[in-house]
Amino acid sequence: MPTMEAPMSMRTISCRICRGVLATVLALMLGGCDILSAPPVPDWPGPQAPYPFPDNVPHRTE
C-alpha cells in the first residue's frame, strides 16, 4: 500500500537550494570559468558614430 509523503518543509527546500547553489559555484570555480576575467564589452557607440551602411543603400523613406 503506497504511503503518503508529507509536504517538504521550508528547511528541506532551502537546504536543497543551498546545496544546488554551492554545487554550481564549485563547478564554476573548478571549471575555470572566465566570465569575470573576460575583457569588458566596449561601450555602445553614441549618436556621433558614423552610420554603419554605405550611402548608396536605398532607405525605406525614399
Question: Share of helix among residues?
Answer: 25-40%
What structural category arises from helix and sheet content?
mainly alpha
Q: Any idea what the shape is? A: elongated
Strand content: under 5%
List segments where confidence is low: pLDDT < 50 over at least 5 consecutive residues. none
Tell me the series of helices and strands, N- to C-terminal: H
**N-end to C-end Cα span:** 77 Å
Protein name: Lipoprotein
Lay out the secondary structure.
Blueprint: H1 10-30
Structure description:
34% of the residues lie in helices and 0% in strands. With 62 residues, it is mainly α. The protein is elongated. It starts with 9 loop residues before the first helix and ends in a 32-residue tail after the last helix.
